[in-house]
TrEMBL record:
The lineage of its organism: Bacteria, Bacillati, Actinomycetota, Actinomycetes, Kitasatosporales. Keywords: Flavoprotein, FMN, Oxidoreductase. SUPFAM superfamilies: FMN-dependent nitroreductase-like (SSF55469). It holds the Pfam family Nitroreductase. It comes from Streptomyces endocoffeicus. This is Nitroreductase. Residues 7-197 form the Nitroreductase domain.
Length: 230
């Protein structure tokens, strides 16, 4: 699988088999992902990989909180700006509608929608999870570094025939994650990531991306070739 195929086939998979992910594969991926760009070579990420009994315990504890209608811990960072303007609001809404339509969940079935969200905390059935923390003293540039690191992890997972789903949803139950992984003081949980082999029986919708002409501006001579399509 070349880099283009890995990037184009990567998506947020929300249905995994219980087939174990070999530890040597995860180690190989994370060793290579350490080469991701990092300003000043700070490498601000601190990653925990959870499988087996610890992951089962994390899923159990979180499921108990969800079942008790525990709405989670106070947010330490906003997932989205409070006023999400156009075109971002429409893109997010379309992605949500595509997902629920693929699952056969009507707009007014709030119980089913809550159930679909709660699947986050079972890692969508995945047998492996990654949790990415950052030092609280880090700023926006280092959060961007963490994003590039996580993207590198996901592309390398595709090269290994694996899929993933990044989940800021885990920050909602960050205290439960901390009970299991025991991070040192001074770290903030950025996100989790479910990792495993895709269950092809789980319905899914592939979200579209804006055309290049909508998000990229080329200045200067691009050389020979057809113009960008709109």
């Amino acid at each position: 699988m070349d880099v283009y195929e890995a990037v184009m086939s990567r998506r947020a998979v929300r249905g995994f088999t219980d087939e174990p992910v070999p530890g040597e594969v995860l180690e190989r991926v994370l060793s290579a992902a350490a080469r991701a760009p990092s300003g000043g070579n700070l490498q601000p990420w601190r990653t925990y990989v959870v499988t087996g009994d610890p992951l089962a315990e994390l899923k159990k504890r979180t499921a108990e909180r969800v079942a008790a209608d525990d709405r989670g811990d106070e947010r330490e960072y906003p997932m989205y700006p409070p006023e999400l303007g156009s075109p971002y609001r429409e893109r997010r809404a379309e992605a949500a509608e595509r997902r629920y339509a693929a699952l056969g969940i009507p707009r007014d079935d709030q119980r089913a929608r809550h159930g679909a969200v709660a699947a986050n905390w079972d890692c969508f059935g995945a047998p492996a999870a990654l949790f990415c923390y950052l030092d609280r003293r880090m700023g926006p540039a280092q959060w961007a570094d963490a994003g590039m690191y996580l993207q590198t992890v996901m592309v390398l997972l595709r090269a290994e025939g694996l899929h993933s789903c990044t989940q800021m949803a885990w920050s909602v139950y960050r205290r439960t994650v901390a009970e299991v992984v025991s991070p040192p003081e001074g770290l903030i949980l950025f996100c989790g990531m479910s990792i495993g082999y895709e269950d092809p029986t789980v319905p899914h919708a592939r979200t579209e991306r804006a055309p290049v002409a909508e998000t990229v501006t080329f200045l200067g001579d691009r050389g020979p070739g057809p113009p960008l399509s709109g």
